[in-house]
């Protein structure tokens, strides 16, 4: 019985989009691994951007431009 856990940030994801992700992941497991859809379980967890961090900063801070995007090059000031 396949179990797939997907974590995404909580922001503007519609019920229709999440249903499409569930449908397409299920179809992929059926096509590639020959797993029956009725045995496939998909869980989508939505995490607040204050609780998701990378590069030493919260996603909220990065998206608000409060800190530079991790991995980005500093702008040349001269």
TrEMBL record:
InterPro entries given in the database record: 4-OT, 4-OT-like_dom, Tautomerase/MIF_sf
The source's domain of life comes to Bacteria
Q: Which Pfam families match?
A: Tautomerase
State its Enzyme Commission number(s): 5.3.2.-
Domain 4-oxalocrotonate tautomerase-like intervals:
2-58
Which residues does the Swiss-Prot or TrEMBL record annotate as the active site? 2
Q: Which GO terms describe its molecular function?
A: isomerase activity
Keywords in alphabetical order, please.
Isomerase
* Record family assignment: Belongs to the 4-oxalocrotonate tautomerase family.
Q: Which PANTHER family match?
A: 2-HYDROXYMUCONATE TAUTOMERASE, TAUTOMERASE-RELATED
Question: What is the protein's given name?
Answer: Tautomerase
